[in-house]
Amino acid sequence: MLTDIEIAQEAKMLPIAEVAAKLGIGEQDIEMYGRYKAKLSMNLIRSLEKEKAGKLVLVTAITPTPAGEGKSTTTVGLAQGLAKIGKDVIVALREPSLGPCMGVKGGAAGGGYSQVVPMEDINLHFTGDFHAITSAHMLLAAMLDNHIQQGNILNIDPRRIVWKRVVDMNDRELRSIVVGLGGKAHGVPRQDGFDITVASEVMAILCLADSLKDLKERLAKIIVAYSYAGEAITAGMLKAQGAMAALLRDAVKPNLVQTIENVPAIIHGGPFANIAHGCNSVMATKTAMKLAEYTITEAGFGADLGAEKFFDIKCRYAGLKPDAVVLVATVRALKMHGGAAKSSLAVPDTAAVRKGLVNLEKHIENIKKYNVPLVVAINIFAQDTEEELEAIRSHCAGCGVNVALSDVFAKGGEGGRSLAEEVVVLAESGCADFRPLYGSEMKLSDKIKKIAQEIYGAADVAFANEAESALKQFEELGYGHLPVCMAKTQYSLSDDPTLLGRPEGFTMTVKNARISAGAGFVVVLTGDIMTMPGLPKVPAAERIDVTDEGVISGLF
Q1: Which of 10, 257, 270, 436 is most exposed by smallest CB count within 10 Å?
Q2: Which of 545, 453, 432 is nearest to 507 (CA)?
Q3: From CA 285, how far away is CA 348, in angstroms rounded?
Q4: What is the dihedral of CA 13, 17, 23, 26, to 10 degrees?
């Protein structure tokens, strides 16, 4: 049996200029990064602004388990399935972070015969976007410390610096550090730390900006510290936004690649969904919608995180109105939510599936609150029994939702035909009437409670003193109208990763909050969320290698 990377390396890719030509894009509007990758020009993006937008379909999933759900694979396979039934389609995805690629997950470009290619390029350095984001973020950190070193005209309080450093790698040793040691010439000693690049506000800004001008304006609003008098100190006050935008000049342009079946794919940006808003860039999504009849996109982790932020943050700011949602589940994952051990997932267990369906049911209820029609996609495995599948169909029918079986991992687009047909019916039904969960006028604490109680199922929310103080300060500074970005474990609907299924009656604890004024949201920290992950005992990096001829192996 071939591995994902072996399947990807056998794919017959088209030159990227040919992929662009299928979309009506000439070579003058693409910037080549080798033979199979390109960036879309800003001229092209501006020229499409008045074009009619196509249908937008979001792919999300139930609460993740170690059994895996296959959301990215389903996203790519659905796009290929739509192409098989004659639809003009683009898949719009996030870029993978090096952290997960080298850590737990391995590659992140889909799987089996539903992948985006060149897979190894996409998973590693791609077109350098993450490196540019890291550099822009680190420039701001350097300019901040340099300002203090060179006289501190803004009276920045070194004890109230909130701008950490970043690197796109899992490195727990950098979570909490001391900088500025070595004497007066080497800076002012203070406590600091690193986040992973995908948690950077610069990443979020790049993904929410709709132009280079908007990007620069958002960068200027970043709050990096507070003065001794309690004033917010911004990147604009440090005069950093121009140089940061210059570093991001090319990174802001969406990347064009293709799937194994040569369906166009736009891959751009990559904020995490448990510590950021978890969606690809607004420019990528909007551009795809102007170029194709259907745009298939995804949001990270389960619907309680990724889909909620897609709806309440990305759609709110970008004015997007999704036409349909695909909710991905597997028999294996539902068994785990029903209490089955990972070691027994290959054994038929309809009872465990039925118990685990409460998790799927909760995500169905949540998506319906946004008034967007949905279909449940079951990513099937060979050991799934008809009795187990029928239990899912029956339960979903009771929820008023259809089920489509998806075999895109093994069969590519052919395995996604039935799902594609269901999606077309939903998207063209005119039933979508999207609306966010909460209004901008609500207090920040009330927005948090709304999400915790209606989306997660919490009975109540407890705010630590630090969180209460932070939220009060943000309100006083004029940021109370912003949406909230919940930083929560992806492994449970609650803030306790051990609670599977559908937890109820729990109290969610909000430990603290951060302001991302440039991105335009307040990050709410719950549970034990790490903004700098660590490597596991056996990191995926141990399996990755390259031959003397430059062929990469081990990337999933």
Answers
A1: 10
A2: 453
A3: 40
A4: 180
Rounded Cα distance, 443 and 504, in Å = 25
Find out whether the peptide bond into 118 is cis, omega within 30 degrees of 0: yes
Task: Report helix, strand or coil for 45.
Answer: helix
- How is residue 231 annotated by DSSP? -
Task: Please give the average pLDDT of every successive group of 10 residues along the chain, which has 556 residues.
Answer: 89 97 96 97 94 97 90 96 98 92 76 95 95 98 97 97 96 95 92 95 96 97 97 97 98 98 97 88 97 96 96 97 98 96 92 97 98 97 95 97 97 97 97 96 98 98 97 95 95 95 96 96 89 89 92 86
Lookup result for tokens 């990528």: 284
- Interatomic CA distance for residues 456 and 274, integer angstroms: 14
Give me the residues paired with residue 298 across strands.
59
Helices and strands, number each (H, E), in the chain:
20, 25
Secondary structure E strands in 447-498:
460-463, 484-487
Please state, in angstroms and rounded to a whole number, the distance separating the CA atoms of residues 432 and 255: 29
| pLDDT value for 83 | 98
SS (H, E, C) 296-351: EEEECCCHHHHHHHHHHHHHHHHCCCCCEEEEEECHHHHHHHCCCCHHHCCCCCHH
Residues 6+ apart with CB under 8 A from 108: 72, 96, 97, 100, 101, 123, 556
Write out the two tokens for 510.
């909000």
Measured between alpha carbons, how far is 47 from 516 in angstroms, rounded to an integer?
Answer: 31
- Classify residue 503 by its DSSP letter: -
| Strand 324-329 to 374-379 pairing | parallel
Q: How far apart are the first and last CA of the chain?
A: 13
Strand ranges inside 453-541, DSSP E: 460-463, 484-487, 507-516, 521-526
Overall residue count recorded for the chain in this entry: 556
Q: 164 and 142 in contact (C-beta within 8 Å)? A: no
- Exposure string of 376-407, with b = 16+ CB inside 10 Å and e = fewer, is bbbbbbeebeeebbebbbebbeeeebebbbbb
Do the beta carbons of residue 457 and residue 492 sit within 8 Å? Answer: no
Whole-angstrom distance, CA of residue 120 vs CA of residue 112? 14
Rounded distance, CA 59 to CA 303, Å?
9
Residue type, 136: A
Model confidence, pTM? 0.95
Closest by CA to 13, choosing from 30, 44, 31, 38, is 38
Nearest to 389 by CA among 326, 325, 330: 330
Distance from chain centroid for Cα 37: 21
